[in-house]
Amino acid sequence: MKQVLVTGGMGFIGSHTVVSLMEAGFRPVIFDNLCNSSEDVLEGIARITGEKPLFIKGDVTSAADLKALFTGHNIDAVIHFAALKAVGESSEKPLEYYHNNIGGLICLLEAMQEHGVRNVVFSSSATVYGSAAHMPVDEDTPLPPAMSPYGSTKQMGERILFDASIFRSICLRYFNPIGAHPSGHIGELPLGVPNNLVPYVTQAAAGLRKSLTIFGEDYQTPDGTAVRDYLHVMDLAEAHVAALNRLQQVQDRPHWEVFNLGTGKPISVKTLVETFEQVNGVLVPRVMGPRRQGDVPELWANPGRAKEVLGWNAEHSLAAMLRDAWNWQQKL
Ligand code: NAD
Ligand code: WQD
What we know:
Layout: E1 3-7, H1 12-23, E2 27-32, H2 40-49, E3 54-57, H3 63-72, E4 77-80, H4 87-92, H5 94-114, E5 119-125, H6 149-163, E6 168-174, E7 176-178, H7 197-205, E8 212-215, E9 227-228, E10 230-232, H8 233-249, E11 255-261, E12 267-268, H9 269-280, E13 286-289, H10 304-310, H11 318-331
Parallel strand pairs: 1-2, 1-4, 2-3, 4-5, 5-6, 6-11, 7-10, 8-13
Antiparallel strand pairs: 9-12
């Protein structure tokens, strides 16, 4: 298995995964419509790996774009990152989210079926767990109704792959990916005001935002702020290499597996911000605010299955994640 189609490969997680794939000897083909990324990413990847990966501009909801892609390239496996990912926006534009995330997945699987490509790794999310009763969550935790159209597209995506049993599929439930490649040549590029915590922290520290608002200090958690499972994006990237290796091993069809990808360590918002300040020697101006609607008090992973089956575990410390995030912000 050598040539790997990476949909959404110009984005935050996709671009870091492309680096890991190239370093592991795979030949990635990036397919992205650039709706949330820029072509400059190719230059960043080339500065790290010494080689520009192949990039094809196209849309996963377009059967014609996919036909041209699969006809022109011999693809052994697909990693499907391409999706819209803003939880709040998905409630304002549900049809756009279902069209892109579900329509795109179906279109992609149809093209794969047509061209005899059977191996797929799917970007799922910890958001599928909603407000789980017991921490840490493992993959057998029953899934409640999704809390947003975005979350619903991830639950449905997993189910579609389960039902489409002609494929060998692995669904990866990412917890909170943060940081950037240690070189600072690639990282996260949020457009407009960031929704996620760490890009907001780095922009506030850089003086681009007046102050960070910490959403809620009255949760039933050790310091009152919400708790999550943050993992370094390069650890996450490596998990995709492990997932492809796993697909290479399993010859049976159908094959469907799901894995949590997190560190298994609960971190509060307050701890994260204070660690950022200590590691980087900068202040993060901040104010306390009310809870953000739809946020769960705490969510962290039991990543045991990924360790046992994929041989993967997250290695970077919180300090390393926050150092790399700041390094990237300073180079922007
Ligand atoms: P991102 O927005 O940085 O990357 C997604 C890429 O997909 C972008 O480059 C975008 O241009 C592209 N894209 C979107 N729709 C497309 C389409 N129809 N056709 C072709 N390209 C398209 O997002 P990310 O953070 O790298 O997330 C990657 C995947 O991981 C997504 O599926 C997301 O839902 C999932 N995920 C992300 C997080 C997170 O916190 N970042 C957490 C859990 C799951
Ligand atoms: C983390 C914590 C906020 C911003 C989201 C999606 C999830 C997944 C990852 C895609 C929370 C607090 C945040 C701010 C704050 N994405 N916060 N001030 O909400 O855990 O997960 O991204 O699949 O689906 O829901 O991540 O980074 O937005 O927030 O206090 O300005 O930081 O309340 O407790 P979240 P986040």
